[in-house]
Amino acid sequence: MEQIGHYINGEHVAGTSGRTADVFNPATGEVQAQVALANQAEMDAAVAIAAAAQPAWAAQNPQKRARVMMKMVELLHRDMDKLAEALSREHGKTLPDAAGDVIRGLEVVEYCIGAPQMLKGEYTDGAGPGIDMYSMKQALGVCAGITPFNFPAMIPMWMFAPAIVCGNAFILKPSERDPSVPMMLAALMEEAGLPKGIMQVVNGDKEAVDAIIADPVIQSIGFVGSTPIAQYIYGGGCAAGKRVQCFGGAKNHAIIMPDADMDNVVDALIGAGFGAAGERCMALSVAVPVGKDTADRLIAAMIPKVESLKIGPYTGGNDVDFGPVVTSMAKEKINGLVQSGVDQGATMAVDGRDFSLQGYEDGFFVGATLFDNVTTDMDIYKQEIFGPVLCTVRADTYDDAIKMTMENEYGNGTAIFTRDGDTARDFANRINVGMVGVNVPIPVPLAYHTFGGWKKSAFGDLNQHGPDAFKFYTRTKTITSRWPSGAREGANFSIPTMG
Question: What is the pTM of this model?
Answer without folding.
Answer: 0.95
